[in-house]
Amino acid sequence: MELRHLQYFVVLAETLHFGRAAELLHISQPPLSRQIALLEKELGVVLFDRTRRSVRLSAAGERFFLDAKEILSSVQRAKRNALTASLGHTGTLSVGFMFSATYSVVPAIARAYTSTYPEVDLQLTESIPALLVEEIRASNSDVGIMYPPEDTEGLETRTVFREPLVVALPADHPLARCPTIEASELRKESFLISPRRAAPYIYDAIVSHCKQCGFVPKIRLETNYQQTIVNLVGQGLGVALVHRSMKTARPLNVKFRTLANPPIVDLNVSWNQENHNPCIETFVAVANQISNELTNGTG
């Protein structure tokens, strides 16, 4: 039994007229009659009661009609599902992200993506940049939202957000009274920073900027997360250069001040070139859309 046999049967059952059914199926009447006869033979039942003047469904035909329509409907649904999955409209997508990105682009991208593609199971996992690169290379995560990786071999990347670094100071620090601070004014301060092994991009950006301003930063403490860094700043343990978006964290006893001629840090979406999950393409498209909205001030 083939799908076309079910299609022939359903059309005939709906029209109850061999000539009209053949016309709708774009075949001649004799082949349709033969196919229906073969179907009845295969099933071992009479599907239609035929007279010279009429055709009507038998009791077996009425039951078979309901099942055949359901089968054809299921096939059409399966075809649609396969198509939408191939286009990245359904499926599962695992996205790793740096913790600090929750204060900038991650919420906006996640909201837009789940709204546009509600049938995709979006799985968000927080990690540190160095581990994210390993997860993406191993395809344990489909996409990473993170700093540009040092080694991009085998990876695709797109920049989706850029922001300057600002100075985070204890609220009672003398420099907290200044709206703008030169990095050279921090030469005697103790710095809190992410370790290079965890986040080489931001570590190098901060150290290089300080060196360009005539000093090597005195690093007092290293910790992986920007949120932890600003909280420790609030405890008076030092100063830090952090993403401007960290202001939205509103940590206690911390003042954020503009850094003169600050480094600009990028956030990228990155994925493995060999990962062919179609949901990656739809996610990157949404991330680019959000990036454009933020750049143009509409997001």
From TrEMBL:
PROSITE patterns in the cross-refs: HTH_LYSR
Cellular component GO terms held in the UniProt record: protein-DNA complex
Protein name: LysR family transcriptional regulator
Organism: Paraburkholderia phytofirmans OLGA172
UniProt keywords, alphabetically: DNA-binding, Transcription, Transcription regulation
Gene3D superfamilies to which the protein is assigned, alphabetical: Periplasmic binding protein-like II, Winged helix-like DNA-binding domain superfamily/Winged helix DNA-binding domain
UniProt-listed CDD domains: PBP2_LTTR_aromatics_like
Lineage: Bacteria, Pseudomonadati, Pseudomonadota, Betaproteobacteria, Burkholderiales
A molecular function GO annotation: DNA binding
Entry similarity comment: Belongs to the LysR transcriptional regulatory family.
Domain HTH lysR-type: 1-58
InterPro entries xrefs: LysR_HTH_N, LysR_subst-bd, WH-like_DNA-bd_sf, WH_DNA-bd_sf
